[in-house]
């Protein structure tokens, strides 16, 4: 009994020696609870992390009051986030969308930087603070936007690919911007000083990269031979913090050092292994950083001047929306593609928060306003990040307004739509849509293509196919496609929310029309049936059944028995 009491006393003493442990437990518990609520309300987890930080911080519930702990937590989060980005860096990926990156991303970042900096200088802000502030505004949230694109299944659409290209350019710009922070801050001086500081940083970075590229592959080879996942993960973490520490000794920021460490690992043949080991920790990385950012936000500062902060947030949103949309138009894409891209990229992102942390270390603050500028920036950034999931929901309405203003009726006349009757409307001219169109043509069945991808539309027009550029989920596009006279609508688009609108509005326009849709996920099948679809084909189900069939054949099961089992499984799934 006495031993148990002594053991309990020793545990309590240990807990007192680690005062931050209580705060850390409370922090992650609150993060988990708010992330659950975010999931229930279909928000990205980052919103939950930010809310958790705001509530737990010293300006709200006061669960965490140690400012040094908050600062260190944010710094660790920065290191881990940039290391993860560095590991996932892929030259092959960049090459495929290089035009979007260079033209779209360069235009967006460059013009935003120029406009914001020029306005602030005119208002009397020092040029260093103006450039620093403009850098914060120029970047968007990679984490939030990629999550939204993935959830909506539109990453591979033109809008998704352009958005990805701009985000990659922004992520790449973080590296030179981080390198430029000491030059803008207290370390800045004359042109000679700036040049020498830049040259010194480049030499240090080059030296670290050369040594690391010679050492890291050899080290990872030895570690991989041990065939121990734990050892490999620990080694990767040591590389991350070790290279960041070494570069920091030479005056380069920890954030840049972490990115370089990830870049070194990404160039080795163990890149995929490293990514696989790090992915399970990514949620903690994100939570660690975003919670710490939320803790820095002073609610009192927000409540003291809510209208001013709201006006600044709306100004930033409108500026980025306009500049990004103009960049997409520069790529010669239509307005209907520019609108969703601009909406997705209209917020201020996590790398802006990273730059803000780095810049603070060199005496920089937004608009040169010191602590007041810091709080105003954090409030605006957090507000815009939280609002992003709701802002992008405006996309269908804006696209509809723009579509109604476009002269599609003339294109519809040229396609001979008014002459079509008892025809098939094909929504989406991807792989599935092309095969369907080819078969309908071979059998002499009248049909019409509707697609939002301008490249696909141009290809269809060049082939002499009847096609309309537009969103099939919009009622006026359905009418232009002759929905009243159609026998069948086939929708093969990737976004389940768009599919639901297509089904609902097509049934309203023509209750007799038959509707067949393809959806990526089985979870959407029931809802699409309820909306009025006659047949719903789930890629998830069909690929699973195809896999089951192949496995049974490979195991020597008779073809008839294999087909019977596949039919049974299909019935079970469709009965769910």
Instruction: Work out the number of β strands.
Output: 6
What percent of residues are in strands? under 5%
Structural class: mainly alpha
The count of domains is: 2
The CATH topology label of the largest domain is Na+/H+ antiporter like fold
Low-confidence stretches: 407-415
Largest sheet: 6 strands, parallel
CA-atom Rg in angstroms? 27 Å
Helical stretch tally: 27
CATH architecture verdict of the largest domain: Up-down Bundle
How much helicity do the residues have? over 70%
Largest sheet, spatial ordering of strands: 3-2-1-4-5-6
Task: Return the average pLDDT rounded to an integer.
Answer: 79
- Cα end-to-end separation: 55 Å
The CATH class of the largest domain turns out to be Mainly Alpha
User: What global shape is seen?
Assistant: globular
GO biological process, one term: proton transmembrane transport
GO molecular function, one term: antiporter activity
Transmembrane segments: 20-37, 44-63, 69-89, 101-123, 129-150, 162-184, 190-211, 231-247, 283-303, 309-330, 337-356, 376-394
Domain RCK N-terminal: 421-537
Characterize the structure shown.
- The chain is mainly alpha-helical.
- It folds into 2 domains: 18-400, Up-down Bundle (Na+/H+ antiporter like fold); 407-533, Rossmann fold (3-Layer(aba) Sandwich).
- It has helices at residues 2-17, 19-40, 45-56, 67-88, 91-96, 98-122, 127-138, 142-152, 158-184, 191-225, 229-249, 254-266, 271-295, 299-304, 306-330, 335-344, 350-360, 371-391, 395-405, 408-414, 431-442, 454-462, 475-480, 496-509, 525-531, 539-554, 559-574; strands at 424-427, 447-451, 467-469, 488-491, 514-519, 535-538.
- Helix 6 packs antiparallel against helix 7 (127-138), helix 10 (191-225) packs across helix 12 (254-266) and helix 16 (335-344) packs antiparallel against helix 19.
- The termini are far apart.
- Mean pLDDT is 79; it is low at 407-415.
- Residues 421-537 form the RCK N-terminal domain.
- Keywords: Membrane, Transmembrane, Transmembrane helix, Transport.
- It comes from Candidatus Kutchimonas denitrificans.
- Belongs to the monovalent cation:proton antiporter 2 (CPA2) transporter (TC 2.A.37) family.
